[in-house]
Design a protein that fits this description.
The complex is a heterodimer of chains A (about 80) and B (about 375).
Chain A: E1 2-6, H1 11-27, E2 32-36, H2 39-44, E3 52-55, E4 58-62, H3 68-75
Parallel strand pairs in A: 1-2
Antiparallel strand pairs in A: 1-3, 3-4
Chain B: E1 24-25, H1 43-59, H2 61-72, H3 80-110, H4 115-122, H5 129-140, H6 148-156, H7 162-174, H8 177-187, H9 189-212, H10 221-225, H11 239-271, H12 278-284, H13 291-299, H14 306-318, H15 323-335, H16 338-344, H17 350-374
Helix pairs in contact in B: 2-3, 3-8, 3-11, 5-7, 5-9, 6-7, 7-9, 8-9, 8-14, 9-17, 11-14, 13-15, 13-17, 14-15, 15-17
Classes of the chains: A alpha+beta (about 80), B mainly alpha (about 375).
């Protein structure tokens, strides 16, 4: 699955990236993770709060860092 | 889904956020974490029980602090140390209890106000009405300074006037529940109400002035060319999820600020009962009119959240600094900062940033003078 982390590089964005990686590795599915830092690109997803997690082009989380367990539920 | 899962992995929070609990999880039929152990099945019952417990604790703080100071520690009555200890033992749980309840309550309210909904309310609003609404919504909309830029773009590209957007961006970090609870707990309700009122006024008037100056061309050109994507919203939160949201807010905010609160109260306890010293009175007292602009000039580049600044506020007041001067300093530190200017540079041209800082700083100065004159 295709995962994108939207964020301009604050500490939270990094935390979300790590939590997401952990969650997807626990699920054991193949994935591709990309960090999106360009503001225009971030805005094109329609989010106003960062960090955000996009799964296969769909915004799943914005403005917070959920726990690994919560992310696992969102990825399934 | 495993509803009985407790938080094995704590959500990591951004230390520089004045409000870390902006949060939405969407596109799901059911919230992933209703938290079956603590709440979930009977959230209402639990809430009532917790609220009752809160009141029992709160009402017994005074006898408890007295008993703890004089019967457990066996301190001598009438001494300065005893008074300081009693003050600390009374004030710390009091302020923390208040903070927990208010942050939880505001968290519940915030679960109704996503940034998207706020934008929809403000979009196409006329100025003046829009400025007032934006400043008020700034209190209840989850906001974190790290999202200021995407929020700014999201607002101005969907028909929220520039001045109205600024009213929101000024009010959101400055007028918040943590600042209000701390001011109420430590300095009384009059100070808290005045802070709330003048903070909103600064946000409304500054935003209105920026709108009147028609500075749209000083927004970076690419901003207005941005086509923000549309996103289906899922706002149908159920009550257990809202309670969860409130609890997360408590864990996040109280977890982040409790140490500053305790330091602030400890400083207050240390100077409790002492007459103000002359040292600060001469340079930051009521008669030194220039102390207000000086305090604002010093506060503007500095960055801190509301909780971090409270120990300093306590110390300055205890040393005889005037209330207006100290509050102006506090507002300047919270509302404006160098890091914020750098972040906003991505979307604003230097002249608009300078205008923004100038107008807000001027407003804060006027509030400082007003407080000094009133008290």
């Amino acid at each position: 699955m295709k995962l994108q982390i939207l964020g301009t590089g604050c500490a939270k964005c990094d935390a979300l990236k790590q939590a997401t990686e952990k969650a997807v590795q626990m699920l054991g599915v193949p994935y591709e993770l990309e960090k999106v830092t360009d503001l225009r690109q971030i805005m094109s997803f329609g989010v106003m709060t960062t960090p955000a997690l996009v799964v296969n082009g769909k915004v799943k989380v914005s403005g917070k860092v959920p726990s690994v367990e919560e992310i696992k539920v969102l990825l399934v | 889904m495993n509803a009985n899962n407790t938080h094995a992995d704590e959500a990591v929070t951004e230390p520089h956020c004045s409000r870390g609990n902006e949060a939405q999880i969407e596109a799901k039929s059911e919230p992933p974490h209703v938290g079956g152990n603590t709440i979930g099945r009977k959230p209402l019952l639990w809430s009532i029980a917790a609220l009752l417990g809160w009141f029992v604790l709160y009402l017994n703080l005074a006898p408890f602090s007295h008993w703890f100071t004089y019967d457990v520690l066996k301190l001598e009555a009438g001494r300065h140390l005893s008074a300081a200890v009693e003050f600390f033992v009374f004030e710390s749980p009091k302020v923390l209890l208040l903070l927990t309840l208010v942050v939880f309550g505001v968290g519940l309210i915030r679960s109704f106000f996503t940034p998207e909904r706020t934008r929809r309310i403000l979009s196409g609003k006329r100025e003046s009405t829009g400025n007032v609404l934006a400043a008020l919504l700034g209190i209840v909309t989850p906001f974190c300074s790290c999202s200021a830029v995407p929020l700014f773009i999201g607002f101005v590209t969907t028909g929220v006037p520039l001045g109205v957007t600024f009213s929101f961006l000024i009010s959101a970090p400055m007028v918040n529940e943590v600042a209000l609870v701390l001011l109420f707990g430590l300095f009384g309700w009059k100070v808290a109400v005045l802070y709330l009122g003048t903070g909103l006024l600064i946000a409304i008037v500054s935003g209105w002035v920026i709108g009147r100056l028609h500075m749209e061309k000083h927004v970076e050109d690419w901003v207005y060319e941005t086509k923000p994507g549309d996103r289906a919203e899922n706002e149908s939160q159920i009550w257990p999820a809202r309670i969860r949201f409130g609890l997360d807010a408590v864990k996040d905010i109280v977890g982040r600020v409790w140490l500053y609160v305790l330091i602030g109260i400890a400083v207050g306890a240390g100077i409790h009962g002492y007459v103000p010293e002359n040292f600060m009175v001469t340079i930051m007292g009521k008669d030194a009119w220039w102390s207000v602009p000086l305090a604002v000039l010093m506060g503007v580049p500095m960055y801190s959240n509301a909780a971090g600044i409270i120990p300093i506020v306590q110390a300055l007041l205890g040393k005889g600094a005037a209330l207006g001067t100290v509050l102006a300093f506090m507002m300047a530190v919270i509302a404006l900062s160098l890091p914020e200017a750098i972040i906003l540079r991505k979307v604003l041209k230097p002249r608009l940033i300078a205008t923004f800082f100038g107008v807000v700083a001027l407003g804060i100065m006027l509030v400082g003078f007003l407080f000094n004159w009133l008290f």
